[in-house]
Design brief:
By secondary structure, the chain is α/β, with parallel strands linked by helices. The chain has 10 helices and 12 strands. It has 2 domains: 126 residues, Alpha-Beta Complex (Aspartate Aminotransferase, domain 1); 239 residues, Type I PLP-dependent aspartate aminotransferase-like (Major domain) (Aspartate Aminotransferase, domain 2, 3-Layer(aba) Sandwich), CATH 3.40.640.10. Strands 1-9-8-7-4-2-3 form a 7-stranded mixed sheet, sandwiched between helices. A 3-stranded antiparallel sheet has the order 10-11-12, with helices on one face.
Length: 376
């Protein structure tokens, strides 16, 4: 092993990506979004969120997402402040009637199950788990919510969304935080598809959004009618009522909404969700094939069908990921670190639609150069 300091390595300019941001959230924000933010922000920031200009912005986000996801009639885009972490608590009050089942295969997919287990008004949830790098399948249980995760951000495992044949009246509720906008899905297989906008949608966090089917809306209204106690800030019925009026219960971060609206518009202009998914898949195909061709690297997710197209995880042997990350960062290429709690010698690469597939190619060229310096 070389004794060279990683921070002193200088990667040739022809190997560097045009944009060196590969984080898995917050993710790369396109320069065009920032430019639009300067113009629209000057008009909207510091104005009332109860007046037409901001309500029109919220309406644009809601209608744009409905178009992007090709939602059938009767679906609603519901939103509230706080991000996906808050939505787990929201769901324990407003979606789960009595008991839920959770598929757990990483750090983030475990959180909703933990929230349900802690809720004193709910029965103990069913937890079906597998080791990181794989995902479990649903089991037939007496539950009224099946909680899935479309893409496990911590491990780079994606699962195909399919309503269990035995689900009956149970809702399928999907955490899509790092998947929404980058992976395909069918509304026929899902009742609630919720996410935050700091990954595929290249905005800031602090907002949750949920595409809700008519069955989900019926559940929300039914639970609200039961007079179950709920804090107003976590009340899904209050969020729904405000959303259909194109507003949020309390003051939203207008900057996040502007960046989100710009990204949705960009996605739609380029061909919608199918274009976004194909763009991320192109990046993923290169990353995984590149890793498979290296003696010191391999895809962490063994089953190719479960490898994410938006978050790529690559295990390393004989070279320290921390050294590679340090060298990359010294050259302006950032946030390729693995998820901290996973504890693996691993690179993690965001491949969201805003990230140019050619930049992923350049990233791998940069990594090759760094490894050649670290391993004489």
């Amino acid at each position: 092993m070389s004794t060279i300091s990683p921070q002193t390595i200088r990667i040739p300019q022809e190997f560097l990506p045009a944009d060196g941001r590969f984080g898995c959230g917050p993710s790369k924000v396109r320069p065009e979004q920032l430019s639009a933010f300067g113009t629209r922000g000057a008009q909207l920031l510091g104005t009332s969120h109860r007046q037409a200009p901001i309500k029109n912005l919220v309406g644009s986000v809601r209608s744009g997402l409905s178009e992007l996801f090709n939602l059938p009639d009767g679906w609603e885009i519901v939103m509230g402040n706080g991000g996906s972490t808050v939505f787990w608590d929201v769901a324990t009050f407003g979606l789960i009637q009595e008991r839920s089942e959770h598929l757990v295969f990483g750090e983030f997919s475990s959180k909703f199950g933990e929230a349900a287990a802690a809720a004193p008004h709910l029965g103990q949830p069913v937890i079906v788990s597998t080791e990181p790098g794989t995902h479990p399948v649903a089991t037939k249980e007496d539950v009224d919510v099946y909680a899935f995760t479309h893409n496990e951000t911590s491990t780079g495992v994606a699962m195909k969304l399919q309503r269990p044949a035995f689900a009956n009246d149970a809702l399928v509720v999907v955490d899509a935080t790092s998947a929404a906008g980058g992976l395909p899905w069918s509304p026929s297989e899902v009742d609630v598809y919720y996410f935050a906008p700091q990954k595929c949608f290249a905005a800031d966090g602090g907002l949750w959004l949920a595409a809700c089917s008519p069955r989900a809306l019926e559940r929300i209204n039914s639970i609200a009618a039961s007079k179950r106690w709920c804090p107003a800030s976590l009340d899904l019925k209050i969020a729904l009522d405000n959303s259909v009026a194109n507003q949020t219960y309390n003051t939203p971060a207008l900057g996040t909404l502007i960046l989100l609206d710009e990204q949705i518009s960009w996605m739609l202009k380029n061909g919608g969700l199918s274009w976004c998914a194909a763009r991320s898949q192109k990046s993923a195909d290169h990353l995984y094939s590149w890793a498979a061709e290296r003696s010191w690297a391999e895809p962490f997710v063994r089953n190719a069908a479960e490898r994410s197209a938006v978050v790529g995880t690559i295990d390393l042997t004989g070279v320290e990921a921390s050294d590679i990350n340090a060298a990359l960062r010294a050259n302006g290429v950032v946030d390729t670190d693995s998820y901290r709690k996973l504890g693996r010698n691993q690179l993690r690469v965001g491949m969201f639609p805003a990230i140019d597939p050619e930049d992923v190619v350049q990233l791998t060229r940069s990594i090759d150069f760094v490894v050649e310096q670290l391993i004489p």
